[in-house]
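Give me the 3D structure for Cytochrome c peroxidase.
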Amino acid sequence: MMKQTILTTAIALASGLAIHTAAQAANDEPISPIKPPASINLGMVELGKKLYFDPRLSKSGIMSCNTCHNLSMGGTDNIPTSVGDKWQQGPINAPTVLNSSLNLAQFWDGRAADLKAQAGGPIANPGEMAFTHTLAINVLESIPAYVREFKLVFGKDKIDIDQVTLAIAEFEKTLVTPNSRFDQWLLGNKSALTKQEQEGYALFKDSGCVACHNGEAVGGNSFQKMGLVEPYKTTATAEGRAGVTGKDADRFNFKVPTLRNVEMTYPYFHDGAANTLTEAVDIMGRLQLGKKFTKDENAKIVAFLKTLTGDQPTFTLPILPPSADATPRPTPFK
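Predicted structure for Cytochrome c peroxidase (334 residues):
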């Protein structure tokens, strides 16, 4: 019995040491594994999920948050710049909503400090959902099931835009994508990556890509100038941080995008000008690092980038409460 106890204890200690060693190895890397969301208000998440998918928060009644940040397509829309109300062409590429809770700020220019601040912007933007916050609240208050659910979640008789944006933000906090093959490799499963993928990661580090693309989100935690070594040529009008700070020094400074799930979030850059990862890696190498990757080097980096695709959010599609007779009807053609 004593021998069995000693053996069991030794196995437990060895297992614990292995976990500690794997965690320590992950800590030594510039990229860290994605952790599941913590401290989530489930009632708020369920309400926010409905609001995220509800097109009645738009003037046309056909656009929702999911229109441009499609959760079936990597949290984006896979077109260079998004389509807004009355088929307006948006000025910038829609960044993925996946793992957006890990960003230092929201939007390419960082004009929203957090997810809550971001959530209200598209609703009232005339080039996007083209509504007003007041009209959006009027719609929600006319729907009895929403009135009941808001009161249940927030404990208030009146709905306001603060509650709406809080709920949407709480849902978006759940949209993380852990357990990518690269995360598995970081945590000790050395068979999770092929030789080519590991060589691609080594190139990614040695070439300097990790100076900007690091941390849990592999980006999203700094602003950088697009075109450090060579100027970036584009017809896009987006000014980057300069549009927020008013400083000319911030012109063409954009939030570094996350590379998580990057295989799914094409086309790339703030103007959506790069259609493939191969093209994006080539341009980034030349413009940001002053390095011309060979075809083989490029292929290895692309292979590594594809290992960053994690488990996609899965949930039952919300059934939206029906409009009442008094609910204002959408005006898609006005």
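The CA atoms of residues 154 and 163 lie 7 Å apart. Let me know if you want a second pass.
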